[in-house]
Amino acid sequence: MTATLQDVSMIFALPIKGQPVCISSDSDKWREVMIGLIGKAPTQEKMSSGATYKWIQENFSKFLEDSDEQVIHMYARAYLWYAISRTLFSDGTGRNASFMWLTLFAEWGYMHS
Predict the structure, then answer these.
(1) pLDDT(93) > 90
(2) Cys-Cys crosslink for 78: which of 6, 17, 60, 103, Cβ 3.0 to 4.6 Å?
(3) What is the pLDDT of residue 62?
(4) What top-level branch of life does the organism fall under (predicted)?
(5) Helix axes 53-60 and 69-87, enclosed angle (nearest 10)
């Protein structure tokens, strides 16, 4: 069984029609970019660019209810990154979320501010 384009559209409420999403897989300075998008980055040196699912869960599973809008956006980006990389674009190990999927949400949140 495999997820179809229509399945993805229904699950994530994303339109099928429109401009394609094109991302760069360039991972230069990924830690700095990650900190800008979600407020922190893993410190382990083994990871080439990204984080383990465990690290994402440990750092983003709960936030304070009185968090400001910027923090809410960071946690939402981390959640979407986790969901997308775990369900649709999983790596061969099944343990790691690639940084490039987080970059999909770089502009998200700023459009509505």
Answers:
(1) no
(2) 60
(3) 87
(4) Eukaryota
(5) 150
